[in-house]
Design brief:
- By secondary structure, this protein is α/β, with parallel strands linked by helices.
- The protein has one domain: Alpha-Beta Barrel (TIM Barrel).
- The chain has an 8-stranded parallel sheet with strand order 1-8-7-6-5-4-3-2.
- Strand 7, helix 6 and strand 8 form a beta-alpha-beta unit.
- Helix 2 packs parallel to helix 3.
Length: 232
């Protein structure tokens, strides 16, 4: 059975002066989710957006808002994003003192929960918390900035993560999504899917393609990403 795929454009590469318009247009052009990057200039070397911005865009779309927390410590801000309208909240294991507790906090706040693995972070952190995971995210760049190139070793790591998830699903019947974040574009997305990903964060590949357009619409690039996925 062919897997279903989700495209989640990252607002990190959007035009922040027209953020509401960007959200509406990218969803109208066929994106599935909005990926919302939160950076604290502490865990990662950049500073981005917080719960107030999430709350502001929530009324503009029915699409899921996929909040990626690149902050440390992480627990205190989770309820704020849940109240602001997040649907999924993911975090890095290095940012939590108690990973199981943090996953529980996300789920108790009414959101789906996930772990994010940096390029050199081992997948072992997921082994004993599978029942609390709704999504696993593999960073295919080092977090902090948009526009970076995809790290090829991610494909091998994806295969390992897919094997772990499939083994768990066979035992439990529960599905866990596998997302890739960083450097995804129309030229490499098919190979990423073949390695096991089912959810794709694309920032500059989507929002960068819309720059210069009077309507700031993203139909053609999202269609190209879908066409590449259909070839798998």
């Amino acid at each position: 059975m062919k897997p279903s795929y989700r495209l989640a454009p990252s607002l990190l590469s959007a035009n922040f002066a027209k953020l509401g318009e960007e959200v509406a247009n990218v969803i109208a052009s066929g994106a599935d989710w909005i990926h919302f990057d939160v950076m604290d200039n502490h865990y990662v070397p950049n500073l981005t957006i917080g719960p107030l911005v999430c709350e502001a865009i929530r009324p503009l779309t029915q699409a899921s808002i996929d909040v990626h927390l690149m902050v440390k410590p992480v627990d205190h801000i989770i309820p704020d994003f849940a109240k602001a309208g997040a649907n999924l909240i993911t975090f890095h294991p290095e940012a939590s003192e108690h990973i199981d507790r943090t996953l529980s906090l996300i789920r108790e706040s009414g959101c789906q929960a996930g772990l994010v693995f940096n390029p050199a972070t081992p997948l072992d952190y997921m082994d004993h918390v599978m029942e609390k995971l709704d999504m696993v995210v593999l960073m295919s760049v080092n977090p902090g900035f948009g526009g970076q190139k995809f790290i090829p070793e991610t494909l091998n790591k994806l295969r390992l993560a897919r094997a772990k998830i499939d083994a768990y699903t066979a035992l439990s019947g529960r599905q866990i999504l596998l997302e890739v974040d960083g450097g995804v574009n129309k030229d490499n997305i098919a190979g990423i899917a073949r390695a096991g990903a089912d959810t794709f964060v694309a920032g500059s590949a989507v929002f960068g393609a819309g720059k210069g357009s009077d309507l700031h619409r993203y139909d053609s690039i999202i269609a190209a990403l879908r066409a590449a996925l259909a070839s798998t």
